[in-house]
Amino acid sequence: MKKPAERDCLAVVPGYTGQSAKLFLSRGEDDRIDGVTVYDLLGHVKQQGDAEAAAAWVGEWLAKEADNRKARRTQLQAQLFLCKLAGDEKTTFLAAQKPLARVLAEAGVRCRSVAATSGAARQSLGPLSKKH
Known about the structure:
Elements: E1 9-14, E2 20-27, E3 33-40, E4 45-49, H1 51-65, E5 77-81, H2 87-106, E6 110-114
Parallel strand pairs: 5-6
Antiparallel strand pairs: 1-2, 1-5, 2-3, 3-4
Helix pairs in contact: 1-2
């Protein structure tokens, strides 16, 4: 599986433990969009499927992360990327973000829209880990 293009990045969702989930549109061999893939920070695939399945995975992951005691005093902020695709691909992109935005709202995670530029790979907005 080839590395996803930045233009296909839907969102970056920080977790409470310093982990992060990155959601990308996945493309088949013919370069057509065929679903959504969730990666962790190391680039490992965590979930592949449709947008609903990816959103459900993020919801379950955030619920597990919320068991962490630090979670109660941490406000997370996810980054939803603005679409740089056109036509049918734009429709697919925006439709793929809808279930995710719903799940994030239910989990109490704030969202902000950011332009998908290389600056979008900013530090995760999860809790800061202090190095002693």
